[in-house]
Automatic annotation (TrEMBL):
PANTHER family: RIGHT HANDED BETA HELIX DOMAIN-CONTAINING PROTEIN, SECRETED PROTEIN-RELATED. SMART domains: PbH1. Residues 146-308 form the Right handed beta helix domain. SUPFAM superfamilies: Pectin lyase-like (SSF51126). This is DUF1565 domain-containing protein. It holds the Pfam family Beta_helix.
C-alpha cells in the first residue's frame, strides 16, 4: 500500500519537472477576470488567466481566483505539488470548459503523475469534453516506477455538466479526498452519446480514496465506484440520488486487465477492503449498491430508497469478467462480504429480486465466496408486493426461503421502515435500536453521534437532521466536519460551540491535554473528537493525528 509518508521520504522518485523547490515563504497569487498576465499576480495587480498563475506558482503556494466565470480555451494543467487553488474569500469563481472540443478533454487536469499534494477548494468546475477533473498516471510512459498524482483534496466544490465523468481517477492516483462537494449532471456532452458511460466519480485502481459529505445527483450512469483493484476506499455520509444505473459500487465488471496491479493479476479482484457507510441513496434505475469481485467489502448503515427500478437488484453481488486472452476470461467472486444494518426499499413497480447473488452461467462462477460473509440486520421493503430473492441459481425465493437457502439475514426483517420524505426514521420505525453494534460506525448520515444499539439505516433517530436535499447555498450534504487535519488546537476554537461539531483526523488521535470532565465532548482515540453544545476544554488542549490514511475506519 502506498502512503503519504513513503512518497515524501523518497522525493527522488518524482519526475524532474515536478521536483521544484518551494518558495522560502509560501506565496499567494491572484487571478481576476479583468486582470492581465503581464501583471505581478498580486491582489492589486492580478493575472488574467489561471494557467499563468499555475505556471508561476511553486510548491506550497496558493492561487486565489476573484469572483466571476473563467471560460477556458485550453484545459488547465496542474504540474506543481502542494498547490492550493481556490476562490477568493467571500467570492465564487467558476471555471468553465466546452464539452464539444476533444482537445479540451478535461476542465482541470493534474497532468503530471509526480504531483504529490494539493487542494481544490470553493470552486465551480463545469464541462470538459470527457471530464471535469482528471488525475493522471505514467502507465505506458516507459518509466521504471509507476506512480500517479496523489494526496489531493477536493473540498467544497461544485463539479457538473461534464462530457462524461465528473471526476476521473486512473491507476496509482492514491489518497484522493473528495469532501463536501456537489457533483451532478454527468454525461451531457457528445462524448457520451455512444459511450453511455458517465459516472459521478470513476475510480480505476486508485487506493485510499475518500468521498464524504457529497451530494451526487442526476448522474447518467453510476453515482460513483472504485474498481480495478482499488484498495481501502471509504464512501460515507453522502447523498446519492437520480442515477441511471447504480448508486454506488465496489468493483465493476469488464475492467481492462492491464489496469490491475501486477500482484492482482491472478484473480483480478476489483476492490479490496472498501467501506460504504451512512449514505442515503435514492432513485436509481439499477441497484442501490453493487459489489463485484470485491474482497472484504463492508456496506454498513445505509438507506437505499426507490432503487432497482429497471435492472439487477437493490442489493447486487456478483463476479467480474476480465478478458485476459483469446482463451481466458477470469470471473472472480466477492469474498467475505459484510452487508449489515441497511434499509433497502425497492421501487414499488419493480419485479426484480430484492437481493441477487449472481451465478455466472457462462463461466460457472459464483458471486460470493469465503468463510466470513455476513448479510444481516437489514430491513427490506417493497410497497405493493412481497419481495423475492435470488441466491446463485435459485430465484423467486420468499424471504423465509432466502434465509434457509443462503444462510443470511437471520436477524433481518421485511416491512415498511417508516421513513420520512427526507429518508430519516420516523419515531415509530421498527428500525430504531434494531441494528447490530459495529465498532466502525460511530456517527450517522447527519454527523450525529450514534448510540448503542445502533439503528438500522443511515439515520440514528433522535439527533439533528440535515435537510434532504440540501438547501440552496449549501455545498455537499451540509455535513459539518473538518476532515483530514494533522492537529486541532482549542486555542483556535471559540470557547462555546452552539451545535454539534465533529473533528476527524487522519487515523489515530492522541490528546496532549484532557478535555474538561463536563460531558460536553466525546473523544475516541481511534477516530474523532466530537464537540457537543457548550463545548469546553482546558486552554491549549491539542488533539494530534498520525498521518496514516484518512477517515474513521
Amino acid at each position: 500500500m502506498r502512503t503519504w509518508l513513503l512518497l515524501l521520504v523518497f522525493p527522488t522518485l518524482l519526475k524532474a519537472q515536478c521536483d521544484k523547490t518551494p518558495s522560502a515563504t509560501p506565496t499567494t497569487w491572484y487571478v481576476a477576470t479583468n486582470g492581465n498576465d503581464a501583471n505581478a499576480g498580486t491582489v492589486l495587480q492580478p493575472f488574467r488567466t489561471i494557467q499563468k498563475a499555475i505556471d508561476t506558482a511553486r510548491p506550497n503556494d496558493t492561487i486565489e481566483l476573484r469572483g466571476g466565470t473563467y471560460v477556458l480555451n485550453n484545459e488547465l494543467r496542474i504540474r506543481t505539488s502542494n498547490l492550493t487553488l481556490r476562490s477568493y474569500a467571500s467570492e465564487w469563481a467558476i471555471i468553465q470548459a466546452p464539452t464539444h472540443i476533444e482537445d479540451i478533454s478535461s476542465t482541470i487536469w493534474y497532468s503530471e503523475p509526480c504531483v504529490v499534494g494539493g487542494m481544490l477548494e470553493n470552486l465551480e468546475i463545469i464541462g470538459g469534453y470527457y471530464y471535469g477533473l482528471k488525475f493522471e498516471n505514467n502507465l505506458g510512459w516507459d518509466e521504471p516506477i509507476v506512480h500517479g498524482t496523489s494526496n489531493i483534496t477536493v473540498r467544497n466544490c461544485k463539479i457538473h455538466h461534464t462530457g462524461r465523468d465528473c471526476i476521473k481517477l486512473v491507476p496509482y492516483c492514491d489518497n484522493i479526498a473528495i469532501l463536501n462537494c456537489e457533483i451532478h449532471h454527468s454525461g451531457v456532452g457528445i462524448a457520451n452519446v455512444s459511450a453511455q458511460n458517465a459516472e459521478g466519480i470513476d475510480n480505476v485502481n486508485g487506493d485510499q480514496m475518500l468521498v464524504r459529505g457529497c451530494y451526487i445527483h442526476d448522474i447518467a450512469t453510476t453515482g460513483l465506484y472504485a474498481k480495478g483493484g482499488a484498495k481501502n476506499t471509504v464512501i460515507e455520509n453522502n447523498l446519492i440520488v437520480n442515477c441511471g444505473e447504480f448508486g454506488v459500487m465496489l468493483g465493476v465488471g469488464g475492467t481492462d486487465n492491464d489496469l490491475f496491479d501486477p500482484n492482482n493479476q491472478t484473480y483480478y479482484y476489483e476492490n479490496f477492503d472498501g467501506i460504504i457507510r451512512n449514505n442515503i441513496v435514492a432513485n436509481t434505475k439499477h441497484g442501490g449498491v453493487g459489489l463485484i469481485a470485491a474482497v472484504r467489502p463492508q456496506v454498513l448503515n445505509n438507506t437505499f430508497a426507490n432503487v432497482g427500478s429497471e435492472a439487477l437488484a437493490p442489493l447486487y453481488i456478483g463476479p467480474n469478467e476480465v478478458w485476459v486472452s483469446e482463451t481466458t476470461t477470469i470471473a472472480s467472486p466477492c469474498v467475505d462480504v459484510k452487508v449489515i444494518n441497511n434499509i433497502f426499499v425497492e421501487n414499488e413497480a419493480s419485479t426484480l429480486p430484492m437481493v441477487r447473488i449472481r451465478f455466472h452461467q457462462d463461466y460457472q462462477a459464483s458471486g460470493i465466496s469465503g468463510t466470513n460473509n455476513e448479510i444481516d440486520y437489514n430491513r427490506y421493503f417493497r410497497n405493493t408486493t412481497s419481495p423475492t430473492y435470488t441466491y446463485l441459481q435459485t430465484s423467486n425465493l420468499t424471504f423465509t426461503q432466502w434465509r434457509t437457502t443462503s444462510g443470511f439475514d437471520a436477524h433481518s426483517s421485511e416491512g415498511n421502515p417508516a421513513l420520512t420524505p427526507q429518508y430519516h426514521l420516523n419515531s415509530n420505525s421498527v428500525c430504531i435500536n434494531a441494528g447490530k453494534s459495529l465498532q466502525n460506525v460511530n456517527v450517522d448520515y447527519d454527523g450525529t453521534n450514534r448510540t448503542f444499539p445502533l439503528d438500522i439505516g443511515a439515520d440514528e433517530w433522535g439527533g439533528n437532521s440535515l435537510t434532504v436535499p440540501p438547501p440552496v447555498g449549501v455545498i455537499g450534504t451540509g455535513l459539518r466536519t473538518i476532515p483530514c487535519v494533522s492537529s486541532i488546537s482549542t486555542t483556535d476554537l471559540p470557547s462555546t460551540i452552539a451545535t454539534n461539531q465533529r473533528f476527524e483526523t487522519n487515523g489515530a488521535i492522541t490528546a496532549t491535554n484532557k478535555v474538561l470532565p463536563t460531558g460536553t465532548a466525546t473523544y475516541d482515540a481511534g477516530t474523532y473528537v466530537l464537540l457537543k453544545a457548550g463545548f469546553e476544554a482546558q486552554k491549549g488542549a491539542v488533539f494530534t493525528a498520525f498521518l496514516e490514511g484518512c477517515g474513521n475506519k
